[in-house]
């Protein structure tokens, strides 16, 4: 009996040891001879496009195995806070990206290894005193989506969200989304003394008669799809897939300017695979990957030499015509400095 018990204990210890070594191997790259990269990306249509145009091609050309984890930016940030080495490469939206950098959760990139860096617009290469810390995958924006069957005259201004004929049939994003706080500051600028006049912004948003508040891009799309909302402050990249499904949905960039955002590649601070991660990010910034992502997701390219083709040309973040210069880029450092304060006030005053 004692011998059997000893064997059981030994086997259990051995299995635990194997599991621990497997975890360490995955982290250190011993599994697969170091040719394993763990990457956090978004899901849905975005995940499918990234898999097709970036991950699959990268694996085919390099022989590297990419382990994919589907996340939102907020979830990925929380995981990095728990373990900065849980991923090698992380895709984060603007706003959350700056938070990750401020908390030293993403590292400086080795610029000399990024052969495509010189092709990117200045806005797509994010630098601070420490160097290059993020590379944009693509730009998108918050504008106005509307039901083409139920809205006779397409909206043209942010002020149209407050048009009495849309009362009770409007959706706007909450601060939990990328566009929520930029919309607050845009409202402050339109209806107050400037973007710092947040009292005016909160007052106007409080007066807005909504069908519902959208705490994600998917929620806004669902509200439009169900007909509960006929007008919504929504992303171009989230709206046009609805039209692709045959739904009567259009999207416009307001005359005051759509509110810009972007999604960015980062090197996780705790990753031991700095060179391999840089190779992946460089590949994702190449012309072929950019072209596929731009055409499939209606993103404005980080590489301005890449031009959208087909219907994507009319579905850019600035609308059917324009450029990055026509977009309004928020100051995320200012927003993040007041993020919790503004979110708490939103919950008490607007979403009460």
Helix/strand structural class: alpha/beta
| Unreliable residue stretches | 1-33
Could you say what the CATH architecture of the largest domain is?
3-Layer(aba) Sandwich
Number of helices: 12
Question: Which topology of the largest domain does CATH recognise?
Answer: D-Maltodextrin-Binding Protein, domain 2
The description of the largest β-sheet is: 12 strands, mixed
Q: Strand-residue fraction?
A: 15-25%
**CATH-defined superfamily of the largest domain:** Periplasmic binding protein-like II
Whole-angstrom Rg:
23 Å
CATH level-1 class of the largest domain: Alpha Beta
Taking all residues together, what is the mean pLDDT?
A: 91
Task: Please tell me what the overall shape is.
Answer: globular
Helix share bin: 40-55%
Keywords: Signal
Signal peptide: 1-19
Pfam families: SBP_bac_6
GO molecular function: thiamine binding; thiamine pyrophosphate binding
Essential attributes:
352 residues; alpha/beta; D-Maltodextrin-Binding Protein, domain 2; 2 domains; 12-stranded mixed sheet; 12 strands; 41% helix; globular; disordered N terminus
Commentary on this structure:
The protein has 352 residues and is an alpha/beta fold. The chain folds into 2 domains: 10-139 and 261-318, D-Maltodextrin-Binding Protein, domain 2; 140-260 and 328-350, Periplasmic binding protein-like II (D-Maltodextrin-Binding Protein, domain 2). The chain contains 12 helices and 12 strands. The chain has helices spanning 2-28, 44-62, 73-82, 96-102, 180-191, 198-207, 217-226, 236-244, 274-284, 287-297, 332-337, 339-350, and strands spanning 36-41, 65-70, 89-93, 106-107, 125-128, 131-147, 170-173, 210-214, 231-235, 249-252, 259-268, 300-301. Helix 2 links the parallel strand 1 (36-41) and strand 2.
């Amino acid at each position: 009996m004692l011998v059997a018990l000893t064997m059981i204990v030994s086997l259990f210890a051995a299995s635990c040891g194997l599991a621990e070594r497997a975890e360490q191997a995955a982290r250190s790259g011993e599994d697969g001879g170091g040719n394993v990269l763990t990457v956090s990306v978004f899901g849905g249509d975005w995940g499918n496009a990234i898999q097709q145009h970036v991950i699959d091609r990268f694996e085919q050309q390099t022989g590297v195995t990419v382990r994919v984890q589907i996340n939102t930016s907020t979830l990925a940030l929380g995981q990095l806070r728990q373990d900065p080495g849980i991923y090698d490469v992380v895709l984060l939206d603007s706003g959350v990206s700056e938070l990750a950098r401020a908390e030293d959760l993403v590292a400086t990139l080795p610029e000399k290894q990024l052969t495509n860096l010189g092709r990117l617009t200045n806005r797509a290469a994010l630098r601070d005193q420490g160097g290059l810390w993020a590379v944009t995958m693509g730009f998108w924006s918050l504008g106005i989506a509307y039901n083409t069957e139920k809205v006779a005259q397409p909206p043209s201004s942010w002020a149209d969200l407050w048009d009495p004929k849309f009362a009770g049939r409007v959706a706007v994003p909450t601060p939990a989304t990328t566009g929520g706080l930029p919309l607050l500051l845009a409202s402050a600028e339109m209806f107050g003394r400037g973007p710092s006049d947040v009292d005016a912004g909160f007052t106007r948003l409080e007066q807005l008669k909504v069908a519902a508040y959208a705490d994600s891009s998917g929620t806004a799309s669902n509200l439009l799809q169900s007909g509960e909302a006929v007008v919504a402050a929504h992303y171009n990249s989230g709206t046009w897939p609805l039209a692709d499904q045959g739904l009567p949905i259009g999207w416009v960039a307001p005359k005051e300017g759509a509110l810009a955002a972007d999604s960015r590649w980062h090197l996780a601070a705790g990753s031991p695979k700095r060179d391999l991660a840089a190779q992946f990010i460089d590949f994702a910034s190449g012309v072929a990957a950019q072209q596929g992502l731009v055409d499939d997701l209606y993103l404005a390219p980080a590489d301005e030499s890449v031009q959208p083709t087909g219907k994507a040309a009319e579905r850019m973040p600035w609308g059917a015509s324009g450029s990055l210069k026509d977009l309004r880029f928020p100051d995320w450092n200012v927003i993040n400095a007041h993020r919790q304060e503004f979110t708490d006030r939103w919950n008490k005053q607007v979403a009460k």
